[in-house]
């Protein structure tokens, strides 16, 4: 095999790996969550990719599927406020206590009561 062919195959291999990595599905950029009587909550999903690092930190509680939190609550498999209190707020408050930049630490920052 000629050196030019080997280099071409190597570049092609590297390029295809970069494309495959960048094409991974990290879900929607922003997700609207049902906040019940307090309205829709806009969840900035994309901001959590870099901050959380491991998807299962959150998704161990609920699957990566549209409306999964609402579905689990309807089935009685997830308690009201379980995700927010035991996952979101717990993490945000721990980060705040550590002096790190974090998201909201009070319910009213995300839940805006319907008019």
Q: Identify the overall geometry.
A: elongated
Nearest-integer average pLDDT: 81
State the CATH superfamily name: Cytochrome C3
Q: Record the strand order, biggest sheet.
A: 1-2
Give me the number of helical elements: 5
Q: What is the CA–CA distance across the termini?
A: 72 Å
Uncertain runs: 18-23
Q: How many domains make up the 3D coordinates?
A: 1
Spell the H/E element sequence.
HEEHHHH
CATH class: Alpha Beta
Largest sheet: 2 strands, antiparallel
Q: What is the CATH-assigned architecture?
A: Alpha-Beta Complex
- Count the strands? 2
Q: How would you explain this protein's 3D organization?
A:
By secondary structure, the protein is mainly alpha-helical. The chain has a single domain (28-109), classed as Cytochrome C3. The chain is built from five helices and two strands, in the order αββαααα. The chain has helices spanning 3-22, 45-52, 56-59, 68-75, 82-97, and strands at residues 31-34, 40-43. It has a two-stranded antiparallel ribbon. The chain is elongated, with a radius of gyration of 20 Å. 1% of the residues are buried.
How does the SSE layout of this entry go?
Blueprint: H1 3-22, E1 31-34, E2 40-43, H2 45-52, H3 56-59, H4 68-75, H5 82-97
Antiparallel strand pairs: 1-2
Descriptive tags:
mainly alpha, Cytochrome C3, two-stranded antiparallel ribbon, 115 residues, elongated, 2 strands
